[in-house]
Each structure stands twice: as structure tokens, then as C-alpha cells.
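Schema walkthrough. Field components (list of strings):
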Amino acid sequence: MSPSAPLTGAQALVRTLADHGVTACFANPGTSEMHAVTALDGEPRVRSILGLFEGVVTGAADGYARVSGNPAMTLLHLGSGYLNGGANIHNARRARSPMVNVIGDHATYHLGNDAPLTSDIRAMAEPNSKWLRTAAAPEDAGRLAAEAWHASLQAPTGPVSLVLPADVAWLPGASIPERLAAPERTGPDADAVEHAARALRAARNPTLLMTGPALTEPGLRAARRLAGAGVRVLFEFFFPRLQRGAGRYAPERMEYFAERVVQSLDGTDVIVLAEARPPVAFFAYPNQPCELTPDRCEVISLGGPEIDSAESVVQLADALGTTGTDGVPVSELAMPDTPQGELSVQTIGLSIARHLPEGAFVSDEAGTSGGPTWAATASAAPHDWLPLTGGALGQGLPVALGAAIAAPERKGLCLVGDGAAMYTNQALWTMAREGTDIVTVVFVNRSYRILNIELARTGAGAPGPTAQHLLSLSDPPIDFASLARSMGVPSTTATTAEGFDRALAAAFANDGPHLIAAEIA
Amino acid sequence: MSPSAPLTGAQALVRTLADHGVTACFANPGTSEMHAVTALDGEPRVRSILGLFEGVVTGAADGYARVSGNPAMTLLHLGSGYLNGGANIHNARRARSPMVNVIGDHATYHLGNDAPLTSDIRAMAEPNSKWLRTAAAPEDAGRLAAEAWHASLQAPTGPVSLVLPADVAWLPGASIPERLAAPERTGPDADAVEHAARALRAARNPTLLMTGPALTEPGLRAARRLAGAGVRVLFEFFFPRLQRGAGRYAPERMEYFAERVVQSLDGTDVIVLAEARPPVAFFAYPNQPCELTPDRCEVISLGGPEIDSAESVVQLADALGTTGTDGVPVSELAMPDTPQGELSVQTIGLSIARHLPEGAFVSDEAGTSGGPTWAATASAAPHDWLPLTGGALGQGLPVALGAAIAAPERKGLCLVGDGAAMYTNQALWTMAREGTDIVTVVFVNRSYRILNIELARTGAGAPGPTAQHLLSLSDPPIDFASLARSMGVPSTTATTAEGFDRALAAAFANDGPHLIAAEIA
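Field assembly_structure (string):
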């Protein structure tokens, strides 16, 4: 394609992103995005996927990035479309997921008329955009698309926003820029590695705390060597992706509740951070600490997200001269028996450990119900774990969707609480439409259970009728199996351990999405 | 209650809002809002209503305000909760609906730790908040709550935001402030009225264009006198609330599409604006005008939202000396026959006109399907019409919910397109839980039909497979009746005119919510 071809701004934007390897556009377009839609029509390299709510769109782009490492494009309708997608952009920012959010806007000359959908898009997008530009003319569209792609992949990777006014989209005069090279993370900081190695050698109770790329196989292998040298290896409670299951070393996950973190780290005299940050509480509580590093504990950072944490951990293991991993086991495949009797979060975990397909990805927003499944699947077939990252509900279903689009050859499992599932239930429709191989397990406990726990922990007092009304999902009971079928996703309601086990085995054996409503209330 | 009682910030906030007449709190709280939840427990004057997604919460507050004229409180969980509710706050801003959004935040001393849910709430809330404060200490909470309430009712009325950090909520030291008086709109601008009266007398083709309070009975009666004097009376296409139906004067609604507005206003030499703004296009289109006032047409404003537009129209009619309304009819009650045959938007309109209960409110987000119902109900029993205001989808169901909470003695009708219904489908659950008398009609055309129209109007070209994929809801077909039942709302699928008519009559005859999936594809 010659740079002098009469491309519109929208065409140049889409083609440039495709040139840079973007293969998916998650979208919910409106009138101001119609030229972007027909530009997508003309770009066979990009698969366009409709979400019926923008939280689905942006959460799917997060899942896509976590599995592929590459940004997807989103197409959002003006400021309100951006706001609808905003919570999952927040979550994606915390996951450090690259993502190019293309936000349509009114034609440049129409903005001053303050038509009903006019809003201050830049102000809205600023807090969750590590890079934010507006294409002021079609001539800018291709270059800014390339820069947006590049910026999303520049450490710290994350969501970027490109505002595309309607007239910039439809006017000719655009061109395709030179292809940019993908930015690379900086290599490990040799001084920091040496400093950390010395501190670890001298420490009585040293800990390595990791997140980011360190949680994939090269980092985990090196971390196992450190464990063999007597270093306790932890990773942050929230992380973008962890490779785990049979054959892999399983470090410890940090505790969630602050008081348990304090207990867990008691006596630690050195903490080395690989992309991780010093531990802090998720929420503040009256009379509880928020900064959870033990007193008199030395904290040494190998570097932030600008450095590949996997390589840092490898070099740290080398610097420590650790070679032995004797006594540090990797997980062994264990096949629990078919669980029997009453359905519970424990039996669900055992069934999932039995049936999880090799190479599956697991999108986890199960909240208080997920612990036993997490524990049981340590010995399941090897898989990738993709948890909630930013704490904003509604991430699990869309992340599973996006992961499936990025890796259609893999099976997906989505673990989601009933409260979280309702936030972005529209994702089920897109799962059906796109024929994604995702088994969704909804933990139906008919409660925002975490809040019933937090109500006590914050000392807010005993819940009266109003508080109970605000934290319960029991009245009316939501029929998740019907909800799924209403959107084209086959489903099962499970009320016994055996029934759940059978439904799960069948769901993984079949193609396409399936939802199991696990009645554990 | 003595000001010296040991109130927490949360208690003072809730009690102060209740003292000022706030009777409802629409909420989706999280850990940082637990003390606000137990404060609501202790305040019987406020009804607390849970929404399973924040777009439901804020849209309901909009509906509550449009029917009652008073702000509801919302309770939102941090920045992500605000973002989820943001699109309907945008819509509420366009409706000029007063609303006090209480946004929980981390404890003040925890913010610097940048825990996962931390975000720049003030930056996010700023664009759609006409007033925005953070309670920095419990001593501020009561006073700021009173000021928030007052600010939301100060012209132009609209949503305000009060950020409540968790420690400010839980710490004692708060007090209840003096009760503030509700702000009142300024009286009409006598000079503007006189100027407009002179211009109307001299004009050949004068038009009055209204919105706001002018669309309630006093304004409509005065507008009818102006019509009797030869003034064409129009109102904006988007408006917060219109009283219409039998016995009421029915002015003309402005056209939606720009080219039709131009055609409609052709030859108009004077436009007098009562709170309305000079007409502009909803979107820009290539080679179409955006500013739609005819050339050489004089435009005179009676004043913006700071002035009561109903009173302005009354004074304008007085100034013009108009007394006669002969020949300007009010709508007469007409009872169409039972429609027969194939179900269509036309037969739906006739059925609704037959069965709409007197005093009903109608929340309208029916998009391209709503025209025939709008036309047919001009002669239905008297009712209030509450349309989409800001163009962001997902307003219709929550507005109906909030209106029903504000006016439980009235029947509600929600008209919603299938695309719009999916945005905030969670509202159905709250309708069931709260026992609201709302009949929802989903126009199931399995398409973002407006976009199929807009694709052509924007000249974006013929839709290829990708564009068709992005604008269609047909695959898989959504079963709205099952969706509703899954959330506890009884439902019917209607495929014939007679079937719809029967279902609608039965739904209005019964208490509680009902959904009719009207298959018109």
C-alpha cells in the first residue's frame, strides 16, 4: 500500500494497527464510529468481536493481552462508552495489559455545539490511560495508531487511549507510517541483583516476592533454585498470569487479608522484590496496619515493570550460585477421586482438579469461593491462572472471553462469583456467538459474601435489616442456568458433588461455551 | 439529635441527607462503604435499594429525580464503581436530574499506598459533577452532605459528587448541620419576555421551543394559549419529562435527524427558547449542517435552566395578551380497537394506547421502534413520558426502576430496545426484589437498527460481513423472556398483535414487574 493512497483516517488507523500485529478488535460502536466499522470491514487481519456492553469489550482486551502479550484494539462510543468500559480498563492497568482503546468522538467542528452525547473524553480517559492522544486530522491517524501500539507495549505496559473524531475518521488524506519495532524491557539491573544476592546470603529469613513475567516458566525455574538455597518464594496475591500445575514449581501466594500477611511475614529480615511492590493492605481497617513490611526488614527491589522480572530472578539465582533444587518439589499430577455428596466449594475444587484440560487458562473472579479450587488445582494438569487484578468486579467473564479469542486452541475455565457474574453477564452472549471453548462455573452463594466478612472486619457493626438487604443476592434467587441459556450458552445447574463432576467433564468434552450454576448456598 | 452526639462521618452524612428530605439510597457498596451501610441501617427515613451494577444505581437515581423532583443518594464503591455508573450520570446531567453521588474511597492515610483499587476518583468524577467535594474529616461530613444536596438542586440542577474516605466514614466527631432551604429557580426575565413577545407579534412564522419544567401542565396550558395566537410550539427531542395524553395540550416534538429538523424549521423567522437551546444535530454527518437554526431566523432566549421555563411561558402568554385557545385542541381519549395479526411496532403502539393506566410513567429507550407508540399514546390516558436524555444506552430500565421507587402508587411502563436492554439488564432483578409495578416491553428486532440506518447516513459505505457482524444481535437470538425470569421477573414472549395485547392487559392488571419480549424482527 502506497502512502499516497487516498486513505481515510479510520482506514489508516485500522491498517496500521494490523500492520503492527493487532489481530482483534473488541467493539461496541455507535454512529460516530461507523467509518471505523467499515474500515474494519476492509481489514481481514483483524477479527472484530461485538460486546453488548463496553465492560465486556475492555475486559476481553485485557484477557487477550494476558494470554498473547499483545494489545487488542477496542472501539468505544464516545465518553459514555469509555465510562462503561472504564472499570475493566482500571483492572487492565493493574494487570499491566497492553490495550489500544480507540474512542470515537463527535466531528471536531461539532464539539462546540454540545450535543447530548458530548463529554470531556480526554478528562475521563486520563486517569487510566498511560498514553492519550487525539487524532486532530486524518494525516495524524496512522502515525498515532503506531505510537499508541508502541506506547501500550512500552514498560510499564498498559492501556492507552486514542480519540478518533468522526470527521478525522471519514476524511481522506491519511497514510500508513513506517512500522515501529516493539519496545523491549530493559535487562536486569546488575547492581540491584548483586545487592540482593548479598542481602539474601546474609539474611536469616529471606523472602523473594514476585509478580509479572517472573510468574512464567523461566522465572519459576529460577525461583525454584532460590528456594533450594533457602529463600522463601512468594508472589503477590493479585497478578496478571501464573503458569502452574503439574511439573511446575509452585511458590506461595501472598495472603489477602492484612493481618494474615503480617503473620505470614513475621520474622522476615530481607524481602527482595521482583517487579512486586512492598506489601500493602487491600483496604484500610480501623486499628490495622496498611503497610505490611515487617519492622527492621530490609527491602531490595530488582526493578519495576520496566525490567523483565523473569530475567532478574534468573540472574539473581545465578549470582547466588544456586544450582540445587533438591528438596524443592515441582507439583505432581494428582487425580482426586470423584467427589461425592453435598456440593461445596471443596468438591468443586476437586472436580476441577480432575478435569482441567492441559494448557487451559483459568479466569478467576470467584472471590471467597475460589480458595479450595486454587489449592486443588496446584496438582492439576499444567495451566495458566488469570485472576482479578484491580479489584473492580466484572473482570472474570470478559477476561475469559478475550483469552479464548487470543488462544482458540486452548480450553478455558471461568470461575466467577454470582455477584461478579452479574456485573458483565453480557459476556456470555459473545462467548456463544464466537463459539469460544469456555466453561464458566458460577459459585452461587446468593451473597456478596466478602462484604459480609468485611462488615465485621471493618468494625462497622452488626448488620441490621438494611445492611442485610444490601449485601444479599438471595431474593429473588438468580437462575444462572436460565440466564446463560437466554444468551445462547448451554448450561447446567449442579446441586450435588457428583452432578457437578459429571457436568464439568461433559462441558470440557464438548466444543463451545457452557455454564454450570453451582448451587452452594 | 444534639450536634454534640458522637456521630461518625457516615452517620452524619446519611442523617443530614434524610433531614433534607432524601428518601432513597440506590447502592452497590464495597468494603470501603461498610460504615455507610450500617449508617443506613440506622436511618429509617431512607429506603436502601441494591443494584447489581452501578449503571442501575445511577440510572435509578435519575428516574427517582425526574418523577419526584428531589435527589436520591447513591452509594458507589470507589473510582471503579463511579465509572460503572458514569454513563447514566452523564444521562442524568443531560436530564438535569439532581442526584447526590456518595463515592467511597480508601482511608485518607491509605491512598498513598496505591492499593489495587486506588484511582483518581476526583479526576474521574469531575466531568459529570456540577459540584465535587471530598470529606477530609468527619467534622466535614454533615455540612458537605447538606451542601451537596443544596448544590444538586441549585439551577442548573444535576448530579453532584461527594467523596467519602473510609476513615472519615468510620471516625466519630461528626455533627448534624443546620437544615438548608431548597434553592429556588429565579423568576422569569421580564426584559427577555417582553423582547420575545414583541418579536412573536412581528413574526410571520414564529416558533416557541421548550424543555424543562415548561413541559409540565402549567407550561403546557400557557403554551396552548400561545398556539392559539399563532405561535408554533415545539419541544426538544430529548427532554427530562413531559406530561401528555388525554386532556393535555400536545405540542410538536422536534425531529431527531438533522435534515428533518432543517426541513421542519424552514421559513421560521423567530424562535423563542424556553430553557431549550438553539437546535443542533445529534451527530455530525458529512456534508450536513450541525447548527440547525434557519438563516436569518431571530433567536430569543427566555433564559436557561436557572429560570423556571414554565413560568416564563406563562408570562410570555400573558405579555402577548393571548387568552383564546379556540381551535387548539387538547388530546382526546381515544381507545383503539384490539390490534390484530402480525406483531409490529404499530400494533404495539395501539395496544399500549389502549391499556396505559392513568397516571403511568413511561420510561422510553425504545430507539427506532418507539415512534408508533409515541404517536398512539398522545390520546392515551394522561401519563408522564421520561425519555433517554443523554444518548448513552442503558438508561431506560434503571429510570423506570427509580421512578417506581419515587412513585410506588403509579404504574410504570418501560419501552426498551433489545440493544439498550442488554446494557443494564441487571435492573430487572431489582425491579423484582422491590416489587415495583413496572411493565417492560422489549422491542426485539435483533439489531442495533439505528446504526444500520446511520451507516448509510454517515456515508460509511455498504456494510460488509464485519460491519453486519458488529451491528446485528441475531446470532445467537437473546430470549428476553427467559432472561427476565432468570432474575425473578415474570415474562411473556409475544409474537402476534393479539398476544401482545392480552399480555399487556394482564401485566398492567397484576401487581409487580412483568416483561414482554415483543418479537418484531
